[in-house]
Amino acid sequence: MSDPTKMAKTIIDDFRIILMQSDTECGNEILCTQIAKECTHTMVDNILKYQFKYVNQNDLFDFYMFWNAVKIAIDND
What we know:
- By secondary structure, the chain is mainly alpha-helical.
- The chain is 74% helix and 0% strand.
- The protein has one domain (4-76).
C-alpha cells in the first residue's frame, strides 16, 4: 500500500476541491479544508467499520494499520 500521509492528503484535497467548486457558502478555503478533513475522517471510519470483512484475513492487520495511520495523518495535516 502507499504512504498513509500521502493518502490522507490526497483524499482531503479531493474533498476540498469539490467543496470549493460547489455552489455553497463554503468558498472560504480554511472552512473547506476543515469540512474536507471531517469528510475524510468519516470515510476512513466507514472503511475501518465496514470494509474489513471483504479483506483477505492474511491482509487484515496490514489493512487496519494502513487505514488507522491514514486516520492519524488526517489530524496531523
